[in-house]
Write a structure and sequence with these properties.
By secondary structure, this protein is an alpha/beta fold. The chain folds into two domains: 3-90, Elongation Factor Tu (Ef-tu), domain 3, CATH 2.40.30; 101-258, Nucleotide-binding domain of ferredoxin-NADP reductase (FNR) module (Rossmann fold). The protein is 29% helix and 32% strand. The strands form three sheets. A seven-stranded antiparallel β-sheet has the order 6-1-2-5-4-3-7, sandwiched between helices.
């Protein structure tokens, strides 16, 4: 018996929000945690952040970008269809404290990951400044949702097609130059974006938390596929993370590990043939 897809909608080009029946996970999930799924019994295992959950309805919300064969398969599961299996909730939940002023930064589909974290931090009594960005207007997601939970929301696009023209780091730098007090930053998005944010905050001595998404298989610390170097020590993202102090992450090593299987990934993508509807 699989997990039924209750609702599915497109948020942006190749970015999909999917509500899935998973009552046990919904009851236990906390912000910052993720699941690992297999679309079918022969499929590979991939991690996805739990963007939201409704314990009463017994559902969780997943938001994913279609980039490889498995996300293509997941995209093609219809409403009423089933995902073979889900394991979770996995990983350590976000540590929620009363920091003062929190800046939540989401880049691209990373906004789906930062949203539940930002929401929990706001509910924890913090003032929330949110910065979200994407390459262009058509790729922005969750602007309404982020606006509803934020004391201040700043939206930017690389090409200037919507609101502020520039990168999330440009917006962050501007805030700091204005003298805006920021006590902690949560930055989630593409690796180059997270690294750039960390360089900005390092110079100002602002603690910065990132959520990492390396290659992951079992999600229990057994396979070692999600190994990252943090503060000169090896950590397994699935059991020690997924959140880490960004100033301690070896982004160069992480980038190399993310490029381990490019030819295999491209072969799987190009060979995928969706079933006729």
């Amino acid at each position: 018996m699989g997990n039924k897809v209750i609702k599915k909608e497109n948020l942006a080009k190749e970015v999909i929000r999917m509500v899935v029946e998973a009552p046990e996970i919904a009851a236990k999930r906390k912000p910052g945690q993720f699941i690992i799924l297999r679309v079918n019994e022969n499929g590979e295992r991939i991690p996805l952040t739990i963007s939201d959950a409704d314990p009463g309805a017994g559902t969780i919300t997943l938001i994913f970008q279609v980039v490889g064969k498995t996300t293509m398969l997941l995209r093609d599961v219809p409403e009423g269809g089933e995902i073979s299996d889900l394991a979770g909730p996995l990983g350590n939940p976000t540590h929620v404290d009363k920091y003062g002023v929190v800046c939540a930064i989401g880049g691209g589909v990373g906004t789906a990951v930062v949203y539940p974290i930002a929401k929990a931090l706001k509910e924890g009594g913090n003032q929330l400044i949110s910065i979200i960005g994407s390459r262009n207007k058509d790729l922005l997601i969750l602007t309404k949702e982020m606006g509803q939970i934020s004391d201040r929301l700043l939206v930017c696009t690389d090409d200037g097609s919507y609101q502020i023209h520039g990168f999330v780091t440009d917006v962050l730098k501007h805030l700091l130059e204005e003298g805006v007090q920021i006590d902690i930053v949560y930055a989630i998005g593409p690796l180059p974006m997270m690294r750039a944010v960390c360089e900005v905050t390092r110079a100002k001595g602002i603690k910065t938390i990132v959520s990492l998404n390396p290659i992951m298989i079992d999600g229990t610390g057994m396979c070692g596929g999600c190994r990252v170097a943090v503060g000169g020590e090896s950590k397994f993202t699935c059991v020690h993370g997924p959140e880490f102090d960004g100033h301690q992450v070896d982004f160069d090593l992480l980038a190399k590990r993310l490029r381990v299987y490019p030819s295999e990934e491209e072969k799987a993508r190009s060979s995928y043939q969706p079933k006729p509807k």
